[in-house]
TrEMBL record:
InterPro entries: MGD_biosynthesis_adapter, MobB_dom, P-loop_NTPase. One of its GO terms (molecular function) is GTP binding. This is Molybdopterin-guanine dinucleotide biosynthesis protein B. Pfam families: MobB. One of its GO terms (biological process) is Mo-molybdopterin cofactor biosynthetic process. Residues 3-135 form the Molybdopterin-guanine dinucleotide biosynthesis protein B (MobB) domain. It comes from the Bacteria.
Amino acid sequence: MKVFGIAGYSGSGKTTLIERMLPVIRARGLRVSLIKHTHHGFDVDKPGKDSFRFREAGACEVLLAGGQRWALMHELRDEPEPTLDDQLARLSAVDLVLVEGFRTSDIPKIEVHRPAAGHALLFDHFPNVIAIASDTALDVGLPQLDLNDPARIAEFILNTVGLA
């Protein structure tokens, strides 16, 4: 599977960009999956539901299965957080996996940057950033993409990973 990352500060527009690129990539007949990393606690389950109760009772994994989807929840308990490679190994085969987060991973990335948000650029600290998507022209030595042109950004990604 080809893997490509989208990096940037919270609120920079990473999720919106990915959401707008997915239909463009799918329209080419490609299968796409996504891994999103978060530093914040999260739960996809609801208190009181059977699956929540099973996890609370100590189950390591709970798999929900239905006619339209299935979901596997795995409690880390005292285990270390899985790496990106660990997570990729769990996915079904697709043409492209987009990764939001995992800034330090060794995969090519686009940095999403909005100068108005007041954050510094990340690419100086993460050598795998190969382009910047921004809503403002920047004075940097990397290719720049218009953050408001998801089709062009998707094309850049597909060309980079050899799926164009």
